[in-house]
Amino acid sequence: MTTACPTLRVADFATESIAIDQLATRGYVIVPNFLAREQCSQLYHYAQHLEPQAWQQAGIGRADNYTTNTAVRQDKIRWLQSDFPYENAYLEMMDQLRLDLNRELFMGLFDYECHLAHYPPGAFYRKHLDAFKGRSNRILTTVFYLNSDWRKQDGGQLVIYGDNGEVLETVLPEAGKLVVFLSDVFLHEVLAGSRDRYSITGWYRLNTSIGGFIDPTR
Ligand code: OGA
Ligand code: MN
Questions:
Q1: Which of these ranges, 58-72, 135-149, 151-165, has the smallest mean pLDDT?
Q2: Residues 118-134: pLDDT tens digits?
Q3: CA distance 9 to 96
Q4: Which atom of ligand 1 is nearest to the CA of 201?
């Protein structure tokens, strides 16, 4: 990639009162054009051209409980790090959104961690919660999609479920779209698709560190 790394700028979220209201009242929101097309396609290009070694098989659980279980999830991930310019640009943008959310919703979000995810054709992530009530400091999940020209027949939808197991939303992983939801409330799953599917999944967290111990470790 020859172009300089962009500074990523949200195309209107916190000032977008509908998005904030929906997040506050329903606990989730879908923002179709969170990032401008050009910025999104640069990130897409970056993700598609990472070396195979840049990725690791995704696991479930944390620290001592961490296992890879391909019956549950089959994506490959890469935790974003601030010393890689494209990754830093995304982290900085999401940190700005953190401040906006704290200002608008008094959420007290302390930090943010996120990873790129690559689902090869056929890969899925079975129904799960990102956090368990009272047992995690993950508060808000964000999923941002990079895939241009994604069509319904490509599959790979994110399905979000309600309290009674009903389908609330079936979301196509289309470039530029951001989904935000409460991490310990909404069961969700990723259906298998027929194309390579790229996204950036992240979590805003509360600070539950005690005596310098960051809980939970990655
Ligand atoms: C996750 C997840 C959803 C998606 O990584 O925990 O649920 O649509 N991702 O990629
Ligand atoms: Mn999830």
A1: 58-72
A2: 999 999 999 999 987 66
A3: 9
A4: 5
d(C-alpha 58, C-alpha 127), whole Å: 15
The class level of CATH for 34-205 reads mainly beta
Break the chain into its structural domains and give their ranges: 34-205
Task: Please give the structure tokens belonging to residue 44.
Answer: 């897409």
Q: How many CB atoms lie within 10 A of CB 173?
A: 26
Quick: pLDDT tens for 25-41.
999 999 998 988 888 99
> In degrees rounded to 5, what are phi and psi of residue 58?
-70, 150
Q: Whose CA is nearest to atom 1 of ligand 1?
A: 201
The identity of residue 24, as a single letter, is A
- pTM above threshold 0.85: yes
Of 125, 110, 182, 129, the residue nearest 157 (C-alpha): 125
Cβ of 77 less than 6 Å from ligand 1: no
Share of the chain above pLDDT 90, in %: 67
